[in-house]
Design a protein that fits this description.
This protein is α/β, with parallel strands linked by helices. It has helices spanning 11-22, 61-66, 86-100, 103-106, 134-153, 177-182, 188-201, 210-228, and strands at residues 2-6, 28-33, 48-52, 72-75, 112-117, 158-164, 167-169, 185-187, 207-209. The chain is built from 8 helices and 9 strands.
């Protein structure tokens, strides 16, 4: 399976990339990044191709040709300032979904699975007054709405899934399992496992909240460990 991944240098995206490199069902990875990746990504099977790009609202014919045959995109693009970087958050995600679901890229008669990394407490009503992170939560909501509307318009070529984690802890976090649940945190490895599972297998729910992501991601990792042993 060939997938596209964005945000591979970020906290979440880098761990999604590491998990994808080890996943037996994934044979090819196109990673879009705004800067060079560190050398800490082992790739013994030569799955990874990195494309350095600063503007994600347009893609050259050569770039789209490199993406030909892709089946899924895990969109984990991060921003420095959620309040001001609307172009990166909304416009880039919409432009990417439109470009990658083109039959010339995904393949004639095939459907692109687009997994959006969103967040907890998203607000889709722009008229609503919020007590904290007002604009950031609304921009995420705007992104979700735009992608879901695109899916309605193109149901045969696009399937959108939305992951809404809360706080995301490091792989070797000191947070015990119980505290993660109580404090609305999720281990980044659990999140990565579930986002890749959605990219590969889809899900019966379009929007996956924190508890589902954590519980199903934890189960997937335990299952993989058992199969490995």
């Amino acid at each position: 399976m060939k997938i596209i991944l964005t945000g591979p240098t970020g906290h979440i995206g880098s761990n999604v990339l590491k998990a994808a490199l080890l996943h037996p069902a994934i044979t090819s990875i196109i990673a879009f990044s705004r800067r060079a990746l560190p050398t800490s990504f082992p790739d013994p099977k030569n799955k990874l191709q990195v494309i350095i790009q600063s503007d994600f609202t347009s893609f050259s014919p050569e770039t789209l040709e490199a993406c030909a045959g892709v089946e899924a995109c895990v969109w984990g693009m991060g921003v420095a300032n959620m309040e001001t970087d609307r172009r990166v958050i909304v416009d880039s995600a919409v432009a990417a979904a439109k470009a990658f679901m083109d039959p010339k890229v995904v393949g004639k008669g095939k459907k692109l699975t687009f997994v959006l990394l969103s967040g907890m407490f998203v607000e889709k009503d722009r008229t609503k007054k919020l007590w904290f992170l007002d604009e950031g939560r609304k921009i995420r909501g705007e992104t979700e709405l735009a992608l879901m509307e695109m899916q309605k318009e193109h149901p045969d070529t696009l399937a959108v899934y939305i992951a809404r984690p809360g706080g995301v802890t490091a792989p070797n976090s000191f947070f015990p399992t119980l505290l993660e649940s109580l404090a609305r945190f999720i281990n980044v490895d659990d999140l990565a496992a579930k986002m890749l599972d959605i990219a590969i297998n889809g899900h019966d729910t379009q929007t996956l909240e924190q508890d589902v992501l954590r519980n199903e991601g934890r189960r997937l990792r335990k299952q993989a460990l058992m199969e490995k042993n």
